[in-house]
């Protein structure tokens, strides 16, 4: 409806994708000849030059991403351990063990829960912040700049910061909570299995929501003001303008930002590793932290690799499901 | 009636703005204030935002007892080298994908993007073994190679998006003047892309500066550990040195904040639009 695609401004990727698709129709005939190689007379040479220029980046990506993944698949089928120095092929035995490993499923559940909760909270609060920033008010540009602060700081620093704010004895959150009467006594936020995961989710929401809001704001700003004006003239309230005009047009941006956010949240490592190390009583253990310990503390590279492959597959399924959903939504919108 | 509606709107907008401001800046300001307070004040019954008495003690500790200057040196070396290499490799790739005759450019871009979505935990184990066999553990080189590959997808995508906005008449003009392929990049495209390169470089720098997982796995002493690993290891046996941690955090975060505030407009643009013209 209303050509949602052309108005929408998804994250970094899809926008450019749209550009690629549009290009033939945008270019004038003479210009589009540039698409067929910079030097037409030496076609072969041009192709060779092009691949040579791509080579450094492709080699780096292949060496540091593709090869390790393949290597990881192999390792997951062996009993590689840096302690016993063994590395024999054992088939899918690691995966069979993994399937019955309650520690793994515990971490798996936490990771899914974390991904879902933080992405949902970040998207909803992000939309609210974006709507606010869309309004005109004094100091808006300053606020927009300040909102980049949480995004820019190292996650380890964020972790320590939340460790201090939510410290069980001297943390300011406890102080304010008790002082205002919201808490009857100090809470050991990160030391208790009931509150630790929630505190970590909060830290993640703090760090990533403002940035999400800025992405969504950019999406809001591409919506034609005429549409809003027209709706206002028709007597629509702000409330219905949001639900009937803005949200549908923002939807593609929202979905794609959500996808990137979810995939990123699924990889959570820094916050958990620094704040709780997976504890107390494994209540905050996630796939990345458990895998890391299996790899680098117990040095079981075979079993650890099976775990990371399971992580990889789970993330792949999430990505695939999300992409299918987005494609269906976009088709429906068309 | 409209008057009160107006008031109501102002109340909601400014109230909301204040909340967002406290949300975004509050925690960091609190930590910044912590870095100037004595341990005795920090563990006292009433926390105070104003440091009183004021002390530089934690900054001294961070540098003289906890090797912060080594971590800074290591991080700067690794992050700057990574940024430089990522810009060179990424520019070549983005230019090729945007301007030259490449079959399956769409597929290549998608592959590059999906690589950046891999969970890093899935590659850290194999990479550790590879790095060990090449004697790259506890070296800058090992970290730089990994960070380069981690940063390349973003750099390539953002620069590609920007190059796509440059008019193709430029290429035509270059061709008429008889410049070579590399000449087109070097003499025509790059000079007008400088602002975009700076922003993209900043993004790559921040990513490398903040990276934790690989630095943790690949380095084991303060001669090569980076800032995040260093700060994560700020612990004492009997208590958590919140003051020292806060001081170190301020030292490693303030420069980033300043850079981000200077380039904020470009950062948001670079990440959202890929430089797309509106």
From TrEMBL, chain A:
Keyword Membrane found: yes
Keywords, sorted A to Z: Cell membrane, Membrane, Transmembrane, Transmembrane helix, Transport
An annotated GO BP: transmembrane transport
One of the Pfam families matching this protein, by short name: BPD_transp_1
Superkingdom of source: Bacteria
Subcellular location: Cell membrane
Keyword Transmembrane set for record: yes
Membrane topology: Multi-pass membrane protein
Cellular component GO terms, alphabetical: plasma membrane
Ranges annotated as spanning the membrane: 46-70, 112-134, 146-166, 249-269, 301-327
Similarity comment text for this entry: Belongs to the binding-protein-dependent transport system permease family.
Protein name: Sugar ABC transporter permease
Species for this entry: Acidisoma silvae
Organism placement in taxonomy: Bacteria, Pseudomonadati, Pseudomonadota, Alphaproteobacteria, Acetobacterales
Automatic annotation (TrEMBL), chain B:
Protein name: Carbohydrate ABC transporter permease
Transmembrane segments: 12-30, 76-95, 107-131, 143-163, 184-209, 245-263
Residue ranges of every copy of the ABC transmembrane type-1 domain listed in the record: 72-263
Organism: Acidisoma silvae
Gene Ontology BP annotations: transmembrane transport
Membrane topology: Multi-pass membrane protein
Keyword Cell membrane: yes
GO cellular component: plasma membrane
């Amino acid at each position: 409806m209303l050509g949602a695609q052309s108005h929408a401004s998804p994250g970094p990727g899809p926008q450019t994708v749209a550009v690629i698709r549009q290009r033939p129709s945008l270019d004038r005939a003479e210009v589009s000849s540039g698409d067929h190689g910079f030097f037409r007379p030496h076609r072969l040479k041009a192709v060779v030059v092009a691949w040579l220029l791509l080579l450094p980046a492709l080699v780096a990506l292949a060496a540091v991403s593709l090869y390790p993944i393949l290597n990881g698949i192999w390792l997951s089928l062996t009993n590689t351990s840096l302690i016993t120095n063994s590395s024999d092929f054992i088939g899918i035995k690691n995966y069979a063990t993994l399937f019955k490993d309650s520690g793994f499923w515990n971490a798996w559940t936490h990771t899914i829960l974390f991904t879902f909760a933080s992405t949902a909270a970040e998207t909803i609060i992000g939309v609210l912040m974006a709507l606010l920033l869309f309004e005109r008010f004094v100091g808006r540009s300053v606020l927009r700049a300040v909102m980049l602060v949480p995004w820019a700081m190292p996650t380890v620093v964020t972790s320590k910061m939340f460790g201090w704010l939510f410290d069980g004895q001297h943390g300011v959150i406890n102080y304010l909570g008790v002082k205002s009467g919201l808490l009857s006594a100090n809470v050991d936020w990160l030391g208790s299995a009931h509150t630790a995961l929630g505190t970590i989710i909060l830290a993640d929401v703090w760090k990533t929501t403002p940035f999400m809001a800025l992405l969504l704001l950019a999406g809001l700003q591409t919506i034609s003001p005429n549409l809003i004006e027209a709706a206002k003239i028709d007597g629509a309230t702000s409330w219905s303008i949001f639900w009937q005009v803005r949200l549908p047009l923002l939807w593609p941006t929202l979905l794609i930002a959500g996808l990137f956010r979810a995939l990123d949240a699924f990889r959570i490592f820094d916050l958990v590793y620094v704040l709780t190390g997976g504890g107390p009583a494994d209540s905050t253990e996630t796939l990345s932290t458990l895998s890391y310990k299996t790899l680098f503390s117990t040095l079981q590279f075979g079993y650890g690799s099976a775990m990371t492959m399971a992580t990889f597959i789970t993330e792949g399924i999430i990505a695939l499901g999300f992409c299918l959903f987005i494609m269906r939504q976009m088709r429906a919108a068309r | 009636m409209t008057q009160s509606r107006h008031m109501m709107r102002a109340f909601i907008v400014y109230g909301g703005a204040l909340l967002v401001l406290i949300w975004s800046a509050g925690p960091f300001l609190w930590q910044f204030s912590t870095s100037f307070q004595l341990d005795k004040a920090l563990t006292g019954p009433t926390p105070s935002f104003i440091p009183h008495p004021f002390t530089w003690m934690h900054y001294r500790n961070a540098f003289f007892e906890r090797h912060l200057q080594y971590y800074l040196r290591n991080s700067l070396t690794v992050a700057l080298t990574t940024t430089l290499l990522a810009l060179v490799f990424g520019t070549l790739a983005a230019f090729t994908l945007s301007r030259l005759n490449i079959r399956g450019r769409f597929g290549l871009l998608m592959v590059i993007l999906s690589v950046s979505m891999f969970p890093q935990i899935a590659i850290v184990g194999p990479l550790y073994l590879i790095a060990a066999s090449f004697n790259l553990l506890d070296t800058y080189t090992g970290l730089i190679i990994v960070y380069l590959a981690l940063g390349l997808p973003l750099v390539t995508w953002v620069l590609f998006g920007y190059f796509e906005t440059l008019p193709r008449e430029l290429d035509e003009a270059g061709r008429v003047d008889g410049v070579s392929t590399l000449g087109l990049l070097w003499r025509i495209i790059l000079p007008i892309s400088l602002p975009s390169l700076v922003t993209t470089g900043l993004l790559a720098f921040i990513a490398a500066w903040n990276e934790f997982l690989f630095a943790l796995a690949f380095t084991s002493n303060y001669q090569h550990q980076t800032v995040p690993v260093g700060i994560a290891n700020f612990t004492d046996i009997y208590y958590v040195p919140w003051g020292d941690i806060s001081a170190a955090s301020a030292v490693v975060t303030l420069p980033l904040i300043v850079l981000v505030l200077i380039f904020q407009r470009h950062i948001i643009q670079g990440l959202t639009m890929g430089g797309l013209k509106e």
